[in-house]
Amino acid sequence: MDSIKVKVQIGEDGVFSTRLPITNQEIEAIVIYQSVQQKKQWSPHFFEKTCGRWQGEVLVREPQPEPQEREPLL
Questions:
Q1: CA–CA gap between residue 9 and residue 27 (Å, rounded)
Q2: What's the predicted TM-score (pTM) here?
Q3: Is the separation of the CB atoms in 6 and 19 below 8 Å?
Q4: Which of 1, 22, 38, 46 can bridge 42 by disulfide, Cβ–Cβ 3.0-4.6 Å?
Q5: What is the pLDDT of residue 18?
Q6: What is the pLDDT of residues 3-55, one digit of tens each?
């Protein structure tokens, strides 16, 4: 059994179609679908409302250690 994963947009007619890399064969197909969640976006004016608003103590980045030497990749 082989599987193919595709991301498609289903239109108002609800029809899903795809091309397969095989011809002239009888197959059994199983369709498992999962709705794609919309990507989350920043709310309007998020950065204008939050940038520079910290009112606590001054944030300081401590000195960082030297990076360790690693073995070369093969």
A1: 24
A2: 0.41
A3: no
A4: 46
A5: 86
A6: 888 888 888 999 988 888 889 999 998 988 888 887 788 888 999 999 989 99
**C-alpha to C-alpha distance for 15 and 31, rounded to whole angstroms:** 13
Supply the DSSP string of the chain, one letter for each residue. Answer: -----------TT-------S--S----------PPPPPP-PPTTHHHHHTT---SSPP-PPPPPPPPP-PPP-
Among 47, 10, 9, 3, residue whose Cα is nearest residue 27: 3
The pLDDT, as a whole number, for residue 39 is 78
C-alpha dihedral (45, 51, 52, 53), degrees to nearest 10: 60
Structure tokens at 73: 């990749």
